[in-house]
Design goal:
5 helices; alpha+beta
């Protein structure tokens, strides 16, 4: 099967091998998920908090997840004064908004453990055009393909976020059962015919057999050989 995952992407290679779901190249996942400044997966803003008193309580209040509306994570830091003496400085706050995470009532949230999410193109609040398709095909699609194989024992007909498993590349673990059943039928065939051939061999080889002569002997040898072959 054609593999589009990168040479060092062992996770992508494993998913493709075991499921037939051909994950996209890991190198391209963030190409359509960058800020205007080219930062993958997030856009940043900085604010000078010159009027905020630098105390441990104020500093802690500025840092963390959803500390203010419209932002995902805030990070505060201090720039020391120009003289290098750290008894004074300027307080800054970096505001981080993650690109391409699900939202609830306008508030971003992170995926729960094991959660699958399918998303494609979308427009940010500032008008940026982004596309989550590749990332979701890689991240959530990989898990969904493995879940399908575990539940149905096949990935035939599987599709996630526009990426499908081709019939020629689908994995079908049910074929193990079908192959085993074919062997069972073959064995039953030989067993049944071995019994019939044994009866023919015995009948043709008896002293009072209906057939005698050279031709009959040749037929008996043929039946005997067939019986041995079936028995084996």
């Amino acid at each position: 099967m054609p593999v589009t995952s990168d040479p060092g992407d062992y996770w992508g290679q494993a998913v493709t091998l075991y499921t037939g779901y051909n994950v996209p190249s890991r190198k391209k996942l963030f190409d359509t998920l960058k800020s205007s400044e080219g930062v993958p997966l997030m856009r940043l803003g900085f604010e000078v908090l010159a009027s905020t008193e630098l105390t441990a309580q104020n500093f802690t209040a500025l840092v963390g997840w959803h500390t203010q509306h419209g932002e995902d994570y805030d990070l505060a830091f201090v720039e020391a004064g120009g003289d290098g003496k750290h008894y004074g400085g300027t307080l800054y706050q970096a505001t981080i908004v993650f690109i391409g995470i699900p939202t609830t009532d306008g508030t971003g949230r992170l995926l729960d453990a094991g959660e699958i999410w399918s998303a494609g193109k979308f427009t940010g609040v500032l008008g940026n055009e982004w596309d989550l398709s590749l990332l979701q095909q890689y991240q959530s699609g990989s898990k969904a393909a493995i879940d399908r194989l575990r539940a149905d024992h096949t990935t035939r007909g599987f599709e996630f976020s526009g990426l499908s498993v081709q019939d020629t590349e689908a994995v079908d673990a049910n074929s193990f059962d079908r192959t085993a059943q074919a062997y069972d039928r073959t064995l039953k065939f030989f067993e049944d015919h071995a019994a019939t051939l044994e009866q023919w061999e015995n009948s043709l080889g008896e002293e009072n057999a209906a057939r005698h002569g050279h031709a009959a002997g040749q037929l008996w040898q043929l039946v005997q050989q067939l019986h041995k072959n079936n028995d084996s």
